[in-house]
Amino acid sequence: MPRKAERVEITDKFARTLTPPPGVAIIRVKDNHLKRFGVYATAKGVRAYFIEYRLDGKRRHMTVAKVGELVAHKARKKAGELLERVTLGRDPLEEQNEKRRGETLEAFWEQDFLPDAKRRWKDSTLRMQRWHWEKVIAPQLARKRLDSLRRVDVEQWHRALHKTPGKANIALRLLKSVLAKAVEWECIPANPAAKIRPLPLQKRETFLAADEVRLLLDAIAEEERLGQLPPESKKAAKGEKDKKDKRPQGIRKAVKRKGKSKGRGGKGQTESESRGITPHAAALFKLLLYTGARLSEIMHAKWDWIRWEERELIIPDSKTGPRRIPLSKQALAELTRLSKYRTKFSQWIIEGVKPGSHLVNPQKPWSRVKERAHKLLNKKRKDAELDPVSESVFQSCRIHDLRHTAASLAAGEGLSLLHIGSALGHAQGRTTERYSHLRRQAALETVETIGELIEGAGGAVVEPVHPDTPKEREA
User: Fold this and answer.
1) What is the pTM of this model?
2) Distance (Å, whole) CA 17 – CA 28
3) How do the residues of the chain divide into helix, strand and coil, expressed in percent and rounded to 5?
4) 58 contacts: CB under 8 Å, gap ≥ 6
5) Rounded to whole angstroms, how far apart are CA atoms 171 and 71?
6) Cα separation of 288 and 35, whole Å?
7) Secondary structure of 312-361 in the HEC alphabet?
8) Which one of 149, 274, 298, 438 is separated from 358 by 20 to 30 angstroms, measured CA to CA?
9) Strand order in the sheet with 321-326
10) CATH no., domain 7-90
């Protein structure tokens, strides 16, 4: 590895293999053919050709091209042309920035920001951010020039998205990053989106209680049973129901169509219309409850990732990087049961309808499970001689709330937030702190039980008095 002061002949092979030594963020190497031309490499794997020059007493550093975009001799030729402008008193970096300032936001995104981001983002992050750019940002702001984009333009665009605040805030973060790069590369003097605050979000987290979880598991089992019935049985059940219905056939069909228009799993769905769910969809929902894992972690998991002896599921790359998901006895039992349905040469744990693929859209089976759980709840209320409810916690419950439920049940039992965060793969402790009130409640219930035990043993009981009451102040 050459030292910083050394000059070498910069070739394609040298540029592609240049790597800074351990503990060094960036290394720059000058060319021995063209003065003020060189190549640099960062610890993050970015490599590029550059030139250095002084103009009006200022030292300037300009990237000529990324390694791979140009071969070494063409990058050297381009660098020579840029340095010739310097001898004529022109500033190639300022000319480049002036050109960028006249670019549209769309051009800056495609030509400058996105190629740089691809080196830093994961594939899943890239897909998500491109979607937000194309669907949320580009329709209103893509044609704006960088040098003419004002804060009021960004504020008006952001406020117009108030009906979907979550989507609006993600898009705002992306736009701030894009414009921050434009400031860093001296394309614009300031970030017009820097001080814009995100829209307030309405918390949508749903924590199912233990009895609600039991109803949900019963609903999953019932829907899986329906999904396993042969088509003949379903047709027979439908025929029996039609015979019992005394209404004219035209009215029955009209009512049936009206119910179907609300979607499978909607309020208009009747029990005979549910086609059930597959064992893989049932296992997905149960594994999310048993492990507290993220949906993508289980839905995209492969059989080879299971370590049966260590009772772990190894995720090579999750939201927070590589992760080991601990597997409880219940999770292992569910995986063992699911292995009986494994098709030949399938690598996915949660298989989809298409052979050789994983489950793609879990929302349809989830809608059926939620509706079934709602019906079971009303059946339970009917047995207890209570009025049925039209709305229940199941109808607002999302798949991601199964993860919240697993964490909340653990916190409710008084388990350490540190241990809960470790099991769920939280990268930051404050993510787990949302369940701290449940841990405090568990601690309060514990001391209440202790107090009752002491009282039963003959301990004295004193009526609690708040220190701010008049009686206390008089004392």
Assistant:
1) 0.56
2) 13
3) 55, 10, 35
4) none
5) 36
6) 60
7) EEEEEEECCEEEEEECCHHHHHHHHHHHCCCCCCCCECCECCCCCCECCC
8) 274
9) 306-307, 312-318, 321-326
10) 3.30.160.390
CB 368 within 8 A of CB 223: yes
Instruction: Tell me which residue of 144, 224, 162 sits closest to 198, measured CA to CA.
Output: 162
CA–CA separation, 38 vs 32, rounded Å?
9
- Residue 315: count other Cβ atoms within 10 Å of its Cβ: 23
Q: What is the distance between the alpha carbons of residues 394 and 215, in angstroms, rounded to a whole number?
A: 10
Q: Side chain identity at 447, as an amino acid letter?
A: V
User: What is d(CA 463, CA 448) in angstroms, rounded to the nearest whole number?
Assistant: 14
Q: Which residue has the higher pLDDT, 139 or 440?
A: 139
- The two tokens of residue 9 are 């002949």
Q: What is the pLDDT of residue 329?
A: 84
Kindly indicate the confidence band of residue 461, based on its pLDDT and cuts at 50, 70 and 90: very low
Residue 377 C-alpha from the chain's centroid: 31
Give the 3-state secondary structure of residue 260: helix
The least confident of 67-81, 168-182, 199-213, 263-277 is 263-277
Place 421 in a pLDDT band, splitting at 50, 70 and 90. Answer: low
Q: Specify whether the CB–CB gap between 280 and 341 falls below 8 A.
A: yes
**What tens digit of pLDDT does each residue of 262-288 get?**
444 444 444 446 688 999 999 999 988
Both structure tokens of 103: 């670019």
